[in-house]
Amino acid sequence: MRAINGIRVEGHRAVVPHGVDGTFQRALITWPPLARTGHLLRTRLSTADIEQRAREALLAEGETAGNVRLFWKYVPTQLATGEWALTLEVGAGTAGVTGPNGSEEPRIIDVDVSAIP
Predict the structure, then answer these.
(1) What are the backbone angles phi and psi of residue 57, rounded to the nearest 5°?
(2) Which of 28, 34, 41, 74 is 20–30 Å from 7 (CA)?
(3) Is residue 85 over pLDDT 80?
(4) Separation in Å, CA 55 to CA 24, 61, 73, 107, 115
(5) Model-level pTM?
């Protein structure tokens, strides 16, 4: 995964598989060029403000119980030049549930953090 200052960039990754003997097999790469300007990489919100927004967003989706994990990410947007500008977002993810009636995938929703340049 591509990361900038420890924050993952969605959709950017490189996979380099090797054979059992250690020889290179092939490279599968999605690593588009980033723009020099136009990124929204920060927020003025405190962590407490982001947590509150996450709670409100989850309640709006009908999620009322369980542990929630917040994670920061950069979401790319393609510019007319073919380069990519990044915008900071926070995801709120609930834990997956496994029970007697099957399993439920974890839910992940995006939380608006009002990103700024």
Answers:
(1) -65, -40
(2) 28
(3) yes
(4) 46, 10, 18, 13, 19
(5) 0.76
